[in-house]
């Protein structure tokens, strides 16, 4: 798939094709725009460092998002922060079509949902972000998380149950308000 003659162009294609998905995943995981940008850069540095293995990769999307997951977990372990999502994240999500009180209520609900997601253990948080927010398939999530499809289903179910308990909401409301 990759030849040394067009290596720079091929790297550029990979970057532009997967940047947004990696950034969104890391933004949801970290809750901080600066951290997400730094972590996204780290993901693509790791991709560059593994170019020798790139011809054996079957599914680039799952491979790159798997790297993103590892980068996020490494970051989480280093920082051990207690609150993932900050108010600055929601300032960029203003709707011009809604009344100010509706926007406030929506932002407050998002803050509560993201706060509850941030308090989940890391594997539950990752599966909720991948399945619920990024809407990846069970198969894609299992490849990224490097676990069985059954584990993804069980973790997702348990994570939603935990979120429902914390928020006292229906499961559909939890995921709907996370987006």
Low-confidence spans: pLDDT under 50, at least 5 residues? Answer: 81-87
Radius of gyration: 17 Å
Any idea what the shape is? globular
Strand and helix order: HHHHHHHHH
Structural class: mainly alpha
The average pLDDT is: 79
Question: How does the major sheet shape up?
Answer: none
User: What percent strand?
Assistant: under 5%
Binned, the helix content reads over 70%
Separate helix tally: 9
Q: Please report the total strand number as a whole number.
A: 0
Concise account of the structure shown:
With 179 residues, this protein is mostly helical. Helix content is 74%, strand content 0%.
Strand and helix layout:
Elements: H1 7-30, H2 33-49, H3 60-79, H4 87-91, H5 100-118, H6 122-133, H7 138-145, H8 149-167, H9 171-178
Helix pairs in contact: 1-2, 1-3, 2-3, 3-7, 5-9, 6-8, 7-8
Please provide a written account of the structure.
This protein is mainly alpha-helical and 179 residues long. The protein has helices at 7-30, 33-49, 60-79, 87-91, 100-118, 122-133, 138-145, 149-167, 171-178. α1 runs antiparallel to α2 (33-49), α3 (60-79) packs across α7 (138-145) and α7 (138-145) crosses α8 (149-167). The longest helix has 24 residues, at 7-30. The protein is globular and about 55 Å long. It starts with 6 loop residues before the first helix and ends with a helix.
